[in-house]
Amino acid sequence: MCEVHTYLLAVRGIFSNFATMPQQLTIKQIATLAGVSVGTVDRVLHNRGRVSPEAMAAVKAVLETHSYRYNLHTSAVAFKKTKKSFSIAISIPSSEKGEYWDIIRSGLDKAFREYGDISVRSEYVFFDQFNALSCREAFESIAAKDYSAVILGTTFVDETVTLCGKLDEKHIPYVFVDGKVPGTNPIASYLADQEVCGRLLARLMDGLTAEGDELALLIPHRVGARISNNSAIRMQAFKSYFAEHRKDRVIREGFYSASSPELTRSEISAFLEENPRVGGVAAVISTGYIISDALSDIGKKAVVGGFDVTEGNARCVREGTLDFLIDQHPEQQGFNAVESLLHYLLYGAPDESLREHTPIDIVFLENLG
Amino acid sequence: MCEVHTYLLAVRGIFSNFATMPQQLTIKQIATLAGVSVGTVDRVLHNRGRVSPEAMAAVKAVLETHSYRYNLHTSAVAFKKTKKSFSIAISIPSSEKGEYWDIIRSGLDKAFREYGDISVRSEYVFFDQFNALSCREAFESIAAKDYSAVILGTTFVDETVTLCGKLDEKHIPYVFVDGKVPGTNPIASYLADQEVCGRLLARLMDGLTAEGDELALLIPHRVGARISNNSAIRMQAFKSYFAEHRKDRVIREGFYSASSPELTRSEISAFLEENPRVGGVAAVISTGYIISDALSDIGKKAVVGGFDVTEGNARCVREGTLDFLIDQHPEQQGFNAVESLLHYLLYGAPDESLREHTPIDIVFLENLG
DNA sequence: CTGTTAGCGCATTCAC
DNA sequence: GTGAATGCGCTAACAG
């Protein structure tokens, strides 16, 4: 039977398929087709007004049938001539090299480099992610100036809402990285689906630990502020997974101070000694390596899962003390944030193709790269 | 202690950081700095010759200190004027919609669309991946013509080597997707690290199955041709993992005919009934869904792992009969292949930044997307 | 309101 | 060997 199958394909033989890519329409061609000039086409495309209804209709008709796409290459070139220059403020938590926010930052910078054609001035205003006051100060300094656009890390909800209200009034566009905040109107928000992150964490912890093991969910607590929105969603999703699929699993919750590694270590050690039957430990933020190190310290072996390929996490994966990481692609989030903002600044409208959320990957030692 | 830590950061307060992206040098600026004209700079940059030693030295000196980078945007624009047009032949296995090679194809097409600025004609010549003769015919038809460049799926080694020899003689550049072949000189090869794929498969099967379970490694066999190189490497790596880390695990090997779903199903059913203690089944090619379906048929539950997010695989993941997929990003492979080829055709040299291998991700139900 | 035109950075042609 | 000049698609200023 298999022979017959193969034979049939052989008889059918090879077949080929010629294709010339549909040449992109140029504004010149559109102008010719619509019987107007390039200037008019440009005005229609950019909603610059000062176009007669007839001309408008003619151009729109051509656009309908041929589906025009901007040529970003030449746009960028032409924009240079206008010497239009933008200032973009970025306010995100400060971070050590190789930590989560530093990776986002490298994505931001990569985009600024890639779009170096366009004249953009970027200005970073960092704040302390464990201190709401420093965030407020940072945001106030941003509200006081008139930037072309703003990129915000959404660590503190109330402060973000306040700033965004002011930006809305001034019609300054903004985008979020690593979060979204209800009651605001960003051009776009770049973040991984936190629900998925939490359930994935649960699924992997469940699958990779032995049947009878207890599992630990370690929760960071912040001084003087409620737990970050992302962590809360992940925790909730983590627990939902077990409530729905594995009611029999015992989940122990422990709190630790993410702001101080030394403290974390002692808190976690104590927690694990109190819960000896724990065979898997889940971190809901990107500092899982602290947990791995604490486990090493007390000589305990457990499956550990965390978030993001930070330097500390990568080290622990290589050392074999951290089993897997859920990668939210912070670098891409940063890159997309800048890209979408520039698109908005240049064309006056958000780029639809950039609205999709960033993908979520799973990283083990083997594919750490 | 934690209080003190936070306090210190608060006192330090926010801090900001201004940055203007280093403006890229233009060839005009280089020309001015070197005291020559843009034409001369261009000749130096493109090694076109006809430049006096003094001019060469002057330009090189400026390039050393300022590190010039091509502006791909404007290059593409300028190239259009020359009306230079390319014809690229692509010979890969034919494939149903949503299957592995069709995904590669969509990546190829995406690149052709994205680089629609450049005048490129693409021509597909498909062959039957289970029939070496059809591959030979396809490759001969390519050798008979004079394309600007060629993209090849490396399913059949001998045929590939023969064709590449002829292309080398004619100085026609080519790149590989989904493989590499010793004894050939491609501009680039795009494929996931097969060693990593195999070890990752092993690691996940090991982790996700119960301690005492036997594991099955299912191997496709091809009529009239030896097993594909990629599958062989994955199998080898899979077995190495267990030989190195888990000598106690029992691995059963089973063969099945990947060319006919019906046959596959019956073969796999028979295999599993002969090996009742198998708790995990690993597929080394992208048709894992056939295994899942066979398991469903006989009402057996086992952890199943496979490769790539094809339509069939995605369906089984959603149905819960396929547990995870190792994603080789075939779409990106296709995209990169075209991109690197165009870079070569335009600039006469491979783009170093495009030589990196494609990343490998792991997909569960949750992050199927 | 509309069409014309200069010029962005670059590749190439063509006089000198 | 060399530099001036042209034009790619596009933006925006400007003259009608």
Description:
Two copies of one chain form a homodimer. With 369 residues, the first copy, chain A, is an alpha/beta fold. Chain A folds into three domains: 2-71, 434 Repressor (Amino-terminal Domain) (Orthogonal Bundle), CATH 1.10.260; 81-190 and 330-356, Rossmann fold (3-Layer(aba) Sandwich); 194-327, Response regulator (Rossmann fold, 3-Layer(aba) Sandwich), CATH 3.40.50. Chain A is 47% helix and 18% strand. Chain A is built from 14 helices and twelve strands. Chain A has helices at residues 2-12, 27-34, 38-45, 53-66, 72-82, 100-114, 132-143, 157-169, 194-208, 229-245, 261-274, 288-297, 311-319, 330-347, and strands at residues 15-20, 85-91, 119-126, 149-153, 174-177, 188-190, 214-221, 251-257, 278-283, 303-307, 324-327, 361-363. In chain A, the strands form two sheets. The first copy, chain A, has a six-stranded mixed β-sheet with strand order 8-7-9-10-11-12, sandwiched between helices. In chain A, helix 8 links the parallel strand 4 (149-153) and strand 5. In chain A, helix 2 crosses helix 3, helix 2 (27-34) crosses helix 4 (53-66) and helix 9 (194-208) packs across helix 10. The longest helix of chain A is centred in the last third of the chain and has 18 residues, at 330-347. The relative contact order of chain A is 0.11. Residues 1-13 of chain A have low confidence and may be disordered. Chains A and B meet through helix 1, strand 1, helix 5, strand 3 and helix 7 of A and helix 1, strand 1, helix 5, strand 3 and helix 7 of B. Strand 3 (119-126) of chain A pairs antiparallel with strand 1 (15-20) of chain B. Chain A binds a DNA duplex (16 and 16 nucleotides) through residues 24, 26-28, 31, 36-40, 42-43, 46, 48-52, 55, 70-71, 73-82, 84, 117.
